[in-house]
């Protein structure tokens, strides 16, 4: 009863207030009618509407008041405020500027005008207003704060720091001044001093998290901070600053899994900035029918990128004045399905509002993406396999979405200048360059650069950034390099330039040197755009691997190193061969622009699939789960929907294991190369003394293709999200002897291995890409060393390569049955040439095609390029353009999956198969060609981690088993294709193959491996 009485009383109070307000409104409107030329009454009416939040109705009376009294500062301030809240920023500045002419000492007017200039990036105009109003008066904190901020934005750092220090004395309890001092110390590279300033600010800031955000960001620049130390600091934000909130219910949203999604984007970077240049082309290419984008912008600055992003969005919300709970409520009211944060802890951060969960799914993407956010409300983090390689997941509280290539998509500006010739050819000395933020330059990396310069006589180092307008910074860098023996005459330290001019400055640089532990990002892309190769050493966090991702995805793998020793070696290798360096410069822009770093359509389509997948999971009430969009380090087109087979069997249906036989479990994924394993282990037909159970994670590696499990009663599909626990439980059954993992590419495999290791032996069956793609991945190497018991392969030399990198393990020889016995092919071959075995760029299709184009008899042949998996649209376009340019006729690119039997019939009828990987050469295809009597061309030597090595397939099948194949280098020199076809030798291969290969032969290798493991265990 008491509660009802209170409610009635509150309702009565609200009603009275409403009535009183309406009465006041009528009075104001009547006054405006009686006194239409009195600016004060119009001002009063505008004030009433502004207070009520009715901006549209406030504009007219505010405008009328200003027209009547344009010299009245308070009226101008009111009208400008209404215009600003109506998103008419330029008009608001125009109004204030007019009143400013007669009110240059009015603090409120000057403050508002300067702030508006500042917010849209007109820093000099903001400074001019502050100076005019302040004069020599240094006792107005608001204007002083604005003046100092404008000076900082204009890169006059020492003067700005002096004002901030004065403000800290003037207002000792205001934490913002210490934070601003820390920001300048950070910009000048004084990291320890910056951290001290942030800590001082944190003692004054209460529950405001901005000082801690800056502290956290700065830790990533510091060369002495470990990954564990930084990870701990990341988690502390959630513990100390995340607002208290209960799990937000979003019942107002439709949970329809296939609906058009409302995707929110929140950032202050919707302009020409790292964010703008790395998301815009993706938004433009995103399938329009899949989603509407809603922008929440915390920055009023606009440029050409802003316009392009706005054109991709159905709604644009200014949130410059919205923070915390107010912003949370605003975003929630917009019915956002998925919110993507593009700010992190950087400028414009709204982490406190995001931490309150304003949308059911929240993703962190580019923009302050330097590490885990460790914020409970953020579900996913958009990454790739280089930024977060295998073994890194433990340092992220979010579920990782690993994109197939780069985690961003770079969009080059239209005004990009031309690339010139290599400067060293004219200068007769090497010019190294780094245009990264100097905050990333520390004594550790300077020492490395000094060593390189000592080993490169007469070389120069060009450093360019806005901070080099600071005499203090120039002095520090110069003195530190001189202490390391590098004369200041060899250093060129330059301040800022307009963007096009900055890009043109790369025409003075031969080799770009990346920073450590915080690498370049946008600058790395811009260097490659301008033909300048970048050498990087990976750092301990996400921030330290930006360059590695961009460089590797541009195809320059050898320029990514994991130690300073390797870093120096790579740089010196480049300096030692100016001819090769010139070739790189001539071609790097083209390579870069055609690479996966700039593949906007492919990225957009993959992102669309990913967003739809996580929304479907949410709509079904399923838990968040990491998503990997690749089969290897190169993309395969991945369908994230369930398999088509209605016969799908769940692992949980297994109720018992035959206790009379030892059991071996095989963990596979849904790829056509898993199917031969099912044939080999088919229902105990060939291996009678042991049980074999095969679990296949059902996510498709190829669109509309599923492994046919009907042929093996012991094969089961499972879902890693829901069934992995059951699968692991089966693996740990008392009668299971060991577990085979066939190719290690996915996080679920790592989780399974960690759970199984120690209880049962784990055998890594090498697939090729999983080995070669991880030879420089220290985290993966450590994981394998600690968790894998045996290595299995059919190639002895792969064991050698493994042992050269990993801790040596006992090895097992196994062979898959590829089903050749079931396929008949014509004895007389057709004039067909197979180029490569997949769409994987490592097939080097274009190099093979260029060699074929030079053959005198190419017109007599039809070329077939298998491209059903591991391919991407950009590479396919490049291949098609190359075919057109070369004038090769009769080329067929297979982009749709066909049945294995049909595929082998076509392959078996071909005259020649050509492989040119710089790894083992698609052993399944090579073996099939031997079996069917097809001539084989492959590399005798491959390049692994920059070193020449004997191809493991060549070592096994040619040197040890006695098969015959042509070396790829021999093929390139040949005048005709016909000369590569020797029917006598192919017949010999055919006969030999029938003795060596076959289902029973393959099964025997598993039986022997089972026995070896049983005896050992």
Give your account of this protein's structure:
Its EC number is 2.4.1.255. InterPro entries: Glycosyltr_41/O-GlcNAc_trsf, OGT/SEC/SPY_C, TPR-like_helical_dom_sf, TPR_rpt, WecF. This is protein O-GlcNAc transferase. Residues 1-11 have a biased composition (Basic residues). The chain has 1017 residues and is of the alpha/beta class. Among the domains are: 261-403, Rossmann fold, CATH 3.40.50.11380; 423-598, Rossmann fold, CATH 3.40.50; 651-813, 3-Layer(aba) Sandwich (Rossmann fold); 820-997, Glycogen Phosphorylase B (Rossmann fold, 3-Layer(aba) Sandwich), CATH 3.40.50. Helix content is 46%, strand content 13%. The protein contains 40 helices and 29 strands. The strands form five sheets. Strands 3-2-1-4-5-6-7-14 form an eight-stranded parallel β-sheet.
